[in-house]
Every structure is written in C-alpha cells, then in structure tokens.
C-alpha cells in the first residue's frame, strides 16, 4: 500500500487579478522505502502541491482532489486537529532555507524538544536525551553543548542538520525535503544529501525530494515526476527518465545540464519549446 496517495490535485489561489491555478490535476503515489523526486523549474508548483497535500496552505488557496490519503487515512475529510497529529510526526518536512526555517528567538535545543513535547509522552529529561541522540545521529558535533545554541550561532549546514534532526524526532514514515540543499555551499550540499539518503535507507522511510536539480534527482531518486506550470509532464523510474525521456520537456531539461552546455552558456527551455509542445505530452 502507498503511504501517500494523491489523485487529481488542483490548487487555485485567489489573487488580486483573479484565480490562479498553481497545481492542475497532479496525481502521485509514494511508498515506504521509496524515494520520489518531483522536479521542475521555479514556479512549477512543486512546493504548493506538497503543502496542499499536508493542508498547510493559507485560506486564499482552494484545494480539491479526487483522493488524498496518507497511510490509508483520508486527509481531505480529516479535522485540523487530527491532521496536526500527523504532520510533524508521521509526515515531516524540511525546507530550502534552514536558517529561516528555525525560530531565531529560541535555542535549537528548545525547538527540537518542543516537537517532542507536542507529539510524544516523553518527560523533560527523556526529551533532552532524545534531542542529544538525534543531534548525534545527524552528525552535529558536541551535541549536548549545541542544544543551547541559537540558530544564528550555527552555519547553514549545521542548521539544516538541526532541521533534519527535528524532522526525524518522531520517526516519520514520510519525509518531504523541499530543495534541502539549494541554499548551501556545494561541499555541504553533498554531505547533507548523503546524510538524508543514509537516514532514508536505515529507517525505510518514504522520501519526496523536491528539486530543480537533475543532478540531485540522479543521485537520490527511485522514481521521478517532472512538473511544469502546475501539471505533471512525465513520470518514470529514474533510469528510464535519464536514458529514454519521453516528453520533449524532460529532454529539454536534460539538455540544460552543464554537461550539455555549448560554449560558455547553458541553453534555456524557452529556446527549445513552446508551452503547447510541452503540454502535448502531459500525463495525469
Ligand atoms: N500564497 C500564494 N498566493 C498566490 N500564488 C502563490 C502562492 N504561493 C505560491 N504561489 C504561486 O504558485 C506557483 C507555484 O509555486 P511553488 O512555490 O509551488 O513553485 P515551485 O515549483 O516549488 O518553485 P520554487 O522552486 O521556486 O519554490 C508560483 O507561480 C507561485 O508564485
């Protein structure tokens, strides 16, 4: 059985210039132990799809779907309080800007212990011990001492490790990583990706990796969804996608990899294709 199952997800924002459809009929499934990458350019609706699935969008968003289940439970008919028990516990999310995602006013120890306080029955001492254990698991040196640090006292890479530790606090079944390495230095990016993949394998978690980077897709994913302007353009296992991409858009995305640069600049998608050509091959 799939962990997360989404069918025909549509998200429309009310904006000053009328309704704007950010996600247009996307369907996806992810199982335990599986890594699904959602890849697409900026604005293709990758983050909004996941935030919608978790019920985390503002009231200006109208979300509809034919099906939205997590672990067999219908998320559409669930009350907000039921959903809050699942989000942060069974489904956790990490974001692109680790420093901005942490609250600057509280120590990182307080923030991870708050998650444990909300979702578990552990007492204060046990929460502290668990926080230390989690920091150690994600490779934060001097874990106990680090708990009393504020986010600004830590590097971007260390803050992302704190975010990962916090996301793992309640042993989630599904982790959604939204561009988890984009804001980090190149050398740190590799370390964080390796850490995520090691933890995913060890724990058998489902992982949704949101990225615009085909290199990250190649290194992490089992299966890939390619998204453009809110629509799913192609879905394939990672080998098939790289070896024999079906849609013109995926081919164009792969051609835009640095390896395929001609001269000193990369080609852009707009140089290859019109929207009409891209949507011709769209799947549901
Ligand atoms: N609250 C909102 N109100 C109106 N439009 C929004 C809102 N949030 C997102 N959007 C729009 O929805 C579209 C999809 O945004 P989304 O953040 O999902 O893109 P993305 O593919 O994740 O890109 P990025 O990698 O830049 O985050 C964008 O055009 C964005 O401007």
UniProtKB/TrEMBL annotation:
Protein's cellular compartments: Cell inner membrane
Residue intervals of the ABC transporter domain: 4-254
Pfam family, one: ABC_tran
Family (UniProt): Belongs to the ABC transporter superfamily.
UniProt keyword annotation of Membrane present: yes
Superkingdom of origin: Bacteria
GO molecular function per UniProt: ATP binding
Keyword check for Methyltransferase: no
Membrane topology: Peripheral membrane protein
InterPro entries in the cross-refs: AAA+_ATPase (IPR003593), ABC_Ni/Peptide_Import (IPR050388), ABC_transporter-like_ATP-bd (IPR003439), ABC_transporter-like_CS (IPR017871), P-loop_NTPase (IPR027417)
Protein name per its UniProtKB record: Dipeptide transport system ATP-binding protein
UniProt keyword annotations, A-Z: ATP-binding, Cell membrane, Membrane, Nucleotide-binding, Transport
């Amino acid at each position: 059985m799939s962990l997360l199952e989404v069918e025909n997800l549509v998200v429309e924002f009310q904006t000053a210039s009328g309704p704007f459809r950010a996600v247009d009929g996307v369907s996806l499934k992810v199982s335990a132990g599986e890594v699904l990458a959602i890849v697409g350019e900026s604005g293709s609706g990758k983050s909004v799809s996941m935030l919608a699935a978790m019920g985390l969008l503002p009231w200006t968003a109208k979300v509809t779907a034919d099906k939205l289940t997590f672990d067999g439970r219908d998320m559409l008919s669930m009350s907000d309080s039921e959903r809050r028990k699942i989000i942060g516990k069974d489904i956790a999310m990490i974001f692109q800007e680790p420093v901005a995602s942490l609250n600057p006013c509280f120590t990182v120890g307080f923030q991870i212990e708050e998650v444990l306080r909300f979702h578990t029955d552990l007492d204060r001492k046990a929460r502290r011990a668990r926080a230390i254990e989690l920091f150690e698991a994600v490779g934060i040196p001097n874990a106990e001492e680090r708990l009393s640090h504020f986010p600004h006292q830590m590097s971007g890479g260390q803050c992302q490790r704190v975010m990962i530790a916090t996301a793992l606090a309640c042993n989630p079944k599904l982790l959604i990583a939204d561009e988890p390495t984009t804001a980090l230095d190149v050398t740190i990016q590799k370390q964080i990706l390796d850490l995520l993949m090691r933890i995913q394998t060890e724990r058998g978690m489902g992982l949704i990796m949101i990225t615009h980077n085909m290199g990250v897709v190649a290194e992490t994913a089992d299966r890939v969804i390619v998204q453009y302007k809110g629509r799913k353009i192609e879905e394939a296992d990672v080998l098939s996608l790289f070896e024999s991409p079906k849609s013109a858009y995926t081919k164009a995305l792969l051609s835009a990899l640095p390896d395929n640069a001609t001269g000193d600049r990369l080609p852009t998608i707009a140089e290859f294709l019109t929207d009409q050509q891209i949507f011709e091959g769209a799947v549901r």
